[in-house]
Amino acid sequence: ALERNATTLGRLLGDALTAEGVPNRIQNAGTMLSVFFTEDPVTNYDEAKAAQTWRFPAFFHALLEHGVYAPPSAFETWFVSAVLDDTAFSRIADASHTRQRPPLPLPHPDQREPPTLTRFHRPEEHARDRSRPVRDPHHRARAAAR
Known about the structure:
Layout: H1 2-19, E1 25-29, E2 32-36, H2 45-50, H3 56-65, E3 78-79, H4 86-96, H5 123-128, H6 139-145
Antiparallel strand pairs: 1-2, 2-3
């Protein structure tokens, strides 16, 4: 039962990620399995780090939102239980498909738009340029001292 459940779980996860267009490799060692966001085999720590580990938090939380308690790190293994049944596999399959949530394949950090930074201006700069609001981090403290 354990080996059958490990195979079924690995297939469910792999099929769901592939359907979403997410590169993945599900690797088994007996009844344990690991999910890596890469198409390359992972045989050591350096190869595991080279996978797209930035995808894991969204994957983990998407499963967790549906009551699937997966290992919380891209570097941990899944220990498969013999008590997994069709109901459990159905829940895992539903949670693995991300069509009902924001898409799983988040942009790579290098492809994200840079964050908008608020520039703090000194009050004397504001006096010269009235189009910019004053962003003085000490404003409240000065006002309270008056």
